[in-house]
Write a structure and sequence with these properties.
The structure holds three protein chains of three kinds.
Chain A: H1 13-16, H2 23-43, H3 50-77, H4 85-102, H5 108-127, H6 135-155, E1 168-169, E2 173-175, E3 178-181, H7 187-210, H8 212-222, H9 224-230, H10 234-261, E4 263-264, H11 271-284, H12 289-314, H13 318-339, H14 343-357
Antiparallel strand pairs in A: 1-4, 2-3
Helix pairs in contact in A: 2-7, 3-7, 3-8, 3-10, 3-11, 3-12, 4-5, 4-6, 4-10, 5-10, 7-8, 7-10, 8-9, 8-10, 11-12, 12-13, 12-14
Chain B: E1 7-8, E2 14-15, E3 18-29, E4 32-43, E5 47-51, H1 58-65, E6 73-78, E7 81-82, H2 88-93, E8 96-98, H3 111-117, H4 127-132, H5 136-154, H6 170-183, E9 188-192, H7 200-217, E10 220-224, H8 228-234, E11 237-242, E12 245-250, H9 252-257, H10 259-266
Parallel strand pairs in B: 5-10, 5-11, 8-9, 9-10
Antiparallel strand pairs in B: 1-2, 3-4, 3-6, 6-7, 11-12
Helix pairs in contact in B: 3-6, 5-6
Chain C: H1 2-9, H2 11-18, H3 20-51, H4 58-74, H5 79-102, H6 110-132, E1 150-153, E2 160-163, H7 164-186, H8 188-198, H9 200-205, H10 210-236, H11 242-246, H12 249-256, H13 261-286, H14 291-305
Helix pairs in contact in C: 3-7, 3-8, 3-10, 3-12, 3-13, 4-5, 4-6, 4-10, 5-10, 7-8, 7-10, 12-13, 12-14, 13-14
Classes of the chains: A mainly alpha, B alpha/beta, C mainly alpha.
Chain lengths: 362, 270, 319
């Protein structure tokens, strides 16, 4: 009823190849964009304190959405599993830190986008073994990346400018007169920068995955031998997936430190974070850009909501609720893998399918 | 028969010059000899069948032709030149496409996406354009989509265009696989048991498609098939293998009369 | 430059020769660590062989079982009673995993099953911290009649210290591996297990219950985990950080091959000894902490040259 594509005909292939060929979806996206750009920056999330809504929810969720899209390109679209996400975010963050100290006058947003290239190179390098090995063996290779890079973040003093605390601290930078990084940057400014970068990158991810390159990734995922016999060069397909994925992840790492944390040590990039991002991908939906938004938002906000509910309704302390949310997320991962391996994105499609015929059951 | 001449089959079909020639191919897996010293050729425009009992080395032969296996001995000649050791994707580039005995479709993709994968090699627009997906990238995408839709029409699978292939019935999956191979616009099309597990009706459909492909696109076809009536009807020439050795090579009627072939299929009296 | 080359190619060996007793000590420490890596890897191999599942939760199972044991004891349960109850808990875990996870995911791609075990890891971490708290606990070594203290060996005026718990760990590990070997070779269940490992479909068709086998295998892996948990806990307390160390079983498996029990043992020893030697003799060159990644990098290099592992067969791909 509400979601009916009857009467909407695609008369050209261009129309059929759009990201959202159905009118209702276009309206939906427009509403989201209006909310994100015109409502949230001024009012935050209704019912929540503005600073909390921005700093604890909106900004991290948007940043992790970029991470999730990046990881999804590798895991969901190309079928190469990675547990090195945390470290690749670190590469982006440290790269951006070094870039800011070498080019103090360059626009910080350009530096953030540039630091992604460093992690893309590192990612492709650690993706090299994927040409010879598959599946679980690759897990070991990505863990090698994770632990080796973590060690570098501690031992290579050059990376954090030999700062005695071992941490990288974000300098203050302005873009067009607005302070975007550093302690005195307004949450609204940081939110808008992160949001814009996310929108930009999400469009690119959507375009790539729907075209020739995305198809070559999915071919490798679904049946690598057949893909090669049809003319996909595994080297190009796999390494491009690693590089693009790591680019996204690196940019999100730089954003995480520069737009959200303000300072970071190696703990922000450890293997437990890698698991967290993998959960976002799985729960959101393997091989879905929309799902990446849902997965990141859900996995990030769920423990916060649970903690608040536990405290205000039942008086349970925060540590217990943290463990409850760990268990709950674990259970959800298992359940979603059993019931619907394509995650929340697929569930959303099913809901849309139901809306299409509502109020009739069939 | 020299390699250059063309000749006319008993059915009155004109067959061109030699396109691909296998010279003394031997393929071993460890101690197991899968193919032993086999030579035969495939000519332009013909339908060439490879038959033989299970384990005769037919699929291995196709795997040698499209470069998935590398024979220990022997040479492969393609269009008058000896083919160096090549990766499968390079051979795909030369214009050799195939279907698989156990369907090898991309299960996470829809029918039309699967067919589009056949166009991968022909799509050239750079990463940057792909990122933007406007202008040349979009034009290219649309142009190839149009070609794929033609093939989809040709094979009569329009109704499943946007279905994920994993959920399709077997017969249709086989057809989608053929569509994908055709989308590559191959010069040589290898079909590995295109009719396995089909009922009579589906086999008739598939035979019709194979003949149409050969007719309309002039595609050379090499196929493996167990159903002898189909082979006898479709093929211009037949090569018969058994335990990796060559038993016979000739027109269907010649092969049918060959004593070694009869023995291999029906058993020999001792 | 020559100094640098010297410090890589000559110096460490000179150090080894100069202090042979210290070298002995390092080798012994590495050996014991290797035995424990091998035990964790053994748990992986058992499950991988029988169900084709790459059980990422094996590491947390080690922590969880150790934690349950100590936690129960702290609640006032006698040590051996706690041991038996912990075994019961591991059985319940095996049973639930089979019933609620494996059974529902039959015929799914490996990668889905693998991710399910990561979910399981999360559940076990949460449960463990929820019930027993997240703080580090001391293993009840003496209460389980395990030896403490140490012996000193003085070869030619040198000094090598053997912790008794390390010796006990080695002996118990050997006994357990031998026991498992007998179990697989000479019992009905063991034969069924090997049949399942060879071919799921075929063993189903001769009347072997896959579900039952999976419970047994997961339980066996649980027992292995418990033993590992006790030994490791006795050497260095029971804490959740052990879970990260337990991940080193993965490079061990890469070296040994995912399906080979001897491979797991040899791989474990190579990694254990190799990383200790590297840390002690070459570590100072890079700044310490190389233990954290050495195993993985070795595995990575190894993978590039021999993807099927030390004992695995070369894979022939078919289409």
């Amino acid at each position: 009823m509400f979601y009916r594509e009857a009467g909407q005909y695609n008369t050209t292939y261009e129309q059929d190849l759009q990201a959202f060929p159905i009118k209702q979806d276009k309206i939906g996206i427009a509403i989201w964009l209006v909310l994100a750009y015109l409502f949230v920056p001024f009012f935050g999330i209704p019912g929540l304190e503005y600073g909390f809504a921005m700093n604890a929810i909106m900004i991290p969720v948007l940043i992790f959405t970029i991470t999730t899209i990046g990881l999804n390109i590798l895991v969901g679209f190309t079928g190469q599993i990675s547990l090195g996400t945390g470290a690749f975010m670190g590469v982006g963050a440290y790269a951006c830190y070094k870039l800011t100290s070498y080019f103090p006058d360059t626009n910080i947003i350009i530096l953030i986008l540039a630091s992604g290239f460093v992690s893309a190179i590192v990612g492709a390098l650690f993706g090299l073994p994927s040409l010879r090995i598959k599946g679980f063996y690759l897990v070991v290779a990505t863990l090698a990346a994770q632990f080796f890079l973590e060690w570098c973040f501690i031992r290579v003093g050059w990376l954090y400018n030999y700062n005695p605390s071992g941490a990288i601290e974000v300098p203050q930078r302005e873009v067009l007169g607005w302070i975007v990084t550093g302690a005195s940057a307004e949450p609204m400014t940081r939110y808008l920068v992160v949001l814009s970068i996310l929108v930009f990158l999400a469009i690119i991810a959507g375009n790539l995955t729907r075209g020739r390159i995305g198809r070559s990734w999915m071919m490798i995922r679904d049946m690598d031998i057949a893909a090669e016999l049809i003319g996909v060069r595994p080297l190009t397909a796999k390494l491009s997936a690693f590089a693009v994925s790591s680019y996204f992840i690196g940019v999100s790492g730089a954003l995480m430190v520069f737009m959200w944390l303000g300072a970071a040590e190696v703990e922000s990039f450890d293997v437990n974070h890698s698991f967290l991002y993998l959960f976002m991908v799985i729960l959101g939906g393997l091989g879905s850009i929309t799902g990446s938004f849902m997965g990141a938002a859900f996995i990030w906000t769920f423990p916060i909501i649970l903690k608040e509910l536990g405290k205000s309704w039942f008086g349970i302390n925060a540590t217990v609720m943290e463990n409850v949310s760990l268990v709950a997320i674990g259970v959800m991962i298992v359940v979603i893998l059993i019931a619907e391996p394509h995650g929340m994105a697929r569930l959303w499609q099913i809901v849309k399918q139901k809306l299409r015929i509502w109020p009739f059951p069939h | 028969m020299s390699t250059a001449e063309t000749f006319i089959t008993p059915d009155g079909r004109t067959i061109g010059a030699v396109m691909m020639e296998m010279k003394n191919i031997t393929l071993r897996f460890g101690g197991v000899v899968a193919i032993q010293d086999i030579s035969f050729d495939i000519r332009e425009g013909e339908i060439r069948a490879i038959i033989g009992p299970n384990g005769a080395g037919k699929s291995s032969m196709l795997n040698v032709i499209n470069g998935f296996y590398h024979p220990q001995e022997g040479e492969v000649w393609f269009r008058g030149a000896k083919r160096p050791s090549m990766k499968p994707y390079q051979i795909a580039k030369q214009g050799i496409a195939r279907t698989f005995q156990n369907i090898a479709l991309f299960k996470g993709m829809t029918t039309v996406e699967n067919v589009m994968t056949g166009r991968q090699l022909m799509m050239k627009k750079s990463f940057l354009w792909q990122m933007l997906r406007v202008g040349p990238a979009m034009t290219e995408e649309v142009e190839h989509r149009r070609r794929c839709e033609e093939i989809i029409d040709f094979l009569e699978i329009q109704h499943i265009r946007k279905e994920p292939v994993g959920s399709l019935p077997y017969g249709l999956q086989k057809r989608v696989e053929l569509a994908r191979a055709l989308a590559m616009e191959p010069k040589l099309l290898l079909l590995d048991e295109p009719m396995a597990g089909m009922n009579v009706e589906e086999k008739e459909d598939m035979s019709r498609f194979i003949l149409d492909v050969n007719d309309q696109y002039g595609t050379t076809i090499a196929l493996i098939e167990h159903d002898m009536s189909v082979v006898m009807d479709l093929a211009d020439r037949v090569v018969c293998l058994d335990y990796g050795k060559m038993l016979a090579d000739g027109t269907p009627s010649e092969v049918q009369k060959n004593q070694a072939v009869i023995d291999a299929y029906l058993g020999v009296e001792h | 430059m020559t100094d640098f080359l010297y410090s890589i190619f000559v110096g460490p060996f000179a150090d080894m020769i100069a202090l042979p007793d210290f070298l002995m000590q390092v080798l012994w420490e590495g050996f014991v660590a290797g035995v424990l890596y091998a035990l964790i890897a053994l748990g992986f191999v058992l499950i991988f062989k029988a169900s084709g599942v790459f059980n990422f939760a094996q590491g947390i199972m080690v922590v969880f079982s150790g934690l349950t044991l100590v936690g129960l004891y702290e609640l006032g349960v006698p040590a051996f009673m706690a041991l038996i109850i912990t075994l019961g808990v591991m059985y319940v875990l095996a049973f639930s995993v089979e019933r609620f996870v494996l059974r529902k995911l039959v015929n799914q791609p490996d990668i889905i099953l693998f991710m399910a075990t990561i979910g399981l890891t999360n559940i076990l971490i949460g449960l463990g911290q929820w019930i027993f708290g997240g703080e580090t606990k001391t293993m009840i070594t003496e209460q389980l009649w395990l030896p403490t203290g140490s012996s000193v060996w003085e070869p030619n005026g040198g000094l090598v210290i053997f912790q008794h718990i390390d010796i006990a760990a080695t002996v118990i590990a050997v006994l357990m591996i031998v026991g498992l070997g007998f179990f697989f070779s000479y019992t009905k269940v063991g034969r069924a297990l090997r049949a399942v490992a060879d071919d799921h479909q075929a063993s189903l068709s001769v009347g072997i219950s896959l579900n039952q086998i999976w419970v047994i295998v997961w339980f066996a892996a649980g027992i292995v985990a418990l033993v590992t948990g006790i030994m490791w806990g006795a050497r260095s307390d029971v804490s959740f950080s052990l879970q990260i160390i337990a991940l080193k079983a993965l490079p061990v498996l890469v070296l040994g091959g995912f399906t080979s029990i001897p491979g797991a043992i040899v791989g474990g020893l190579i990694i254990g000894i190799g990383e200790k030697i590297f840390e002690i003799y070459w570590g100072p060159l890079f700044g310490s902490g190389v233990e954290g990644w050495f195993a993985y990098v070795i595995a990575l290099i190894f993978l590039l040259f021999r993807p099927q592992g030390l004992f695995g067969d070369k894979i022939i791909e078919r289409v």
